[in-house]
Amino acid sequence: MKKSENFWNRNAKRYDRFMRKDRAAYEKLYELIRPVVKARTVLELAAGTGLIAKNIVRAASHIEVTDASEEMIAEAKRNNRSAKLHFSVWDMFCLPYADKSFDVVIVSNALHIVPQPEKALAEIRRVLKDDGVLIAPTFTHGNGTLRGIIKLFFMKLAGFPLNSRWSSADYLAFLRQNGWTVRKSAVLKASFPLTYAECVKPSVKGRG
Question: How many angstroms separate the CA atoms of 140 and 151, rounded?
Fold first, then answer.
């Protein structure tokens, strides 16, 4: 994980510029998320520079914005104008929050870059209320197109920490295999297909 953190620390200042190419997809993403977080307490994991949190905060009652990268959180704090956002540095595998603390947990474009995403899902399940919702949009790199393969080659050269190369169907299947019920999904057109997944927390006997 340390190697991954170093990558994000190095690229924190240029992250927002890099993400501009997917602005249209992210606008659609915000539209999907806002109704779910309305008047709710939200935790965002691997939040990067806080793009999502800052664009949905008016709908939510409070958002805890976390990332394992100190530099990313430093960037996220810049130009923050909302008292409803609280920023901190935490690893998604070991969170300081009590069980069943949040109505909604958001983990966007992160499960594919961590080595054991099922463990992250287990920690999310712990801090999410029984009637809570997991929102987990993720770039899905397993479409196998020539253009996608070339992009992945250059991402690898740059040190991008890709650990899971899912197709959209594979990603949704992964969530279900870990006990989550996918109640809503969509594939948004972006630099790679952005698979939106809105999930209901597993039951006690479920995996995840």
Answer: 13
> Tokens 């810049």, residue?
78
Q: Smallest Cα–Cα separation from 106: which of 164, 181, 24, 30?
A: 30
How much is the pLDDT for 131?
93
**Residues near 208 by beta carbon (within 8 Å), at least 6 away in sequence:** 118, 121, 122, 125, 178, 179, 180, 202
Q: How far is CA 1 from CA 67, 69, 93, 171, 194, in A?
A: 12, 11, 10, 21, 24
Q: What is the CATH number of domain 2-200?
A: 3.40.50.150
Measure the CA–CA gap between 203 and 208, rounded to whole angstroms.
10
Please count the other Cβ atoms lying within 10 Å of the Cβ belonging to residue 12.
20
CA distance 64 to 62: 7
Q: How many residues does the chain have?
A: 208
Query: Measured between alpha carbons, how far is 100 from 38 in angstroms, rounded to an integer?
Result: 18
What pLDDT does 142 receive?
A: 55
CB 196 within 8 A of CB 187: yes
Q: What is the pLDDT of residues 169-196, one digit of tens each?
A: 999 999 999 999 999 999 999 888 899 9
Rounded Cα–Cα distance for residues 59 and 31 (Å): 11
pLDDT at 2 exceeding the cut of 80: no
120-159 pLDDT, tens digit per residue, is 999 999 999 999 999 999 988 656 554 554 455 434 544 4
